[in-house]
Amino acid sequence: MKTVLIVAPHPDDAELAMGGTIAKMIDAGWNVTIVDLTNGEPTPLGSEQIRKKETRNASKALGIKNRICLDLPNRYLQPTLENRRKLAEVIRLYQPDLLFGPVMPDLHPDHVVAANLINSARFEAKFHKTDMAGIPHWTPKQYGYYSTHRTIYNKPSFVVDITDRWVAKLNAIRAYQSQIKNTSQHNSISLVEKVKIICRYFGQCAGVKYAEPFVGYEPISIRNLKIFG
Known about the structure:
Largest sheet: 7 strands, mixed
Shape: globular
CATH class: Alpha Beta
Strand content: 15-25%
Helix content: 40-55%
Structural class: alpha/beta
Order of helices and strands: EHEHEHEHEEHHHE
CATH architecture: 3-Layer(aba) Sandwich
């Protein structure tokens, strides 16, 4: 059983980018934990109470049982030593086999800082002779997910077929009504429609209906040749 740690700058980032993959991991019996760096507030139509309820409903839609929020400042996230240490302690406590975070480059400053924190916290988590909580741990594999506000998508390292978990992903995204309504006010394409376009595009690239793209930061080893079809 794999242990997976998914780091999201805000609640909804993980579901938007890799909700279908999360559902597949959980269905496979993997131990999945989401770490929201911020609570996502303030936003025009949201509040802390609204976002907490939306996050609970989204987690339920995907079967997520382990989710924590570090309550770092939304919109003003910084790559400080303190913030890096907080995330490193989470890595040391959960001991993940796989670590996920946003792919760079990214337009959102919080996403840029999140990627920086993930890289540095991954390294710091293995330190000995420290008073950090947990025990030293090096996460062997790190992967990046694409945020949906991107306008250009570079070629991914691989895609995950989420056709059989598409409905679960949609239900999780629709839980964030405060964000969907806000986004719809400023864009000609709704957030749900944009996610559908992205997943259909990467799906057709791989010969399936819906897929989510990822970037690998280390070489990806293949043990089962069935992957070649």
